[in-house]
Amino acid sequence: MNDEDQARDHTGEHRFKAFRQAEALIRNRRPLDALKVLQPVLETEADKPSVQLLAGRAYFHSAQLNHAEQAFTRVLEMDPADHYARFVLGRTLQRLGRLVEALGQLRMAWAMNPVPEYQDALSEVSARLRLQQN
């Protein structure tokens, strides 16, 4: 392995560690710190759904909802079958007050993976929409 290969490997290892550290920071409810750690990864690997999904989660948990929407939308452009990205996009749209759009995303997420968490979110948005219509 020459010096250039070692440098590339080191950079890849550094990005991997930064990604894992950002995941841990989100789990520990420190989304702003996660975004700082994730920034170099976003700059070099923005075309990876996993990176966008993690960034979206950090944006969501730090109430940067427009950035979260962009990140989750980007994930779905790359992988339309990602039910979790649809779910968190739906939750983001819900927090933005765009309930009709949220309902569509949550319905698709639940259809792809009918887990209780998705059903609960779907029921909540449906109920809020019914209240608005009355």
Automatic annotation (TrEMBL):
Superkingdom, taxonomy of origin: Bacteria
Entry keywords, A to Z: TPR repeat
Residue windows of the TPR repeats: 49-82
Coiled coil location: none
Gene3D superfamilies listed in its UniProt record: Tetratricopeptide repeat domain
Pfam family, one: TPR_19
Name used for this protein in its record: Tetratricopeptide repeat protein
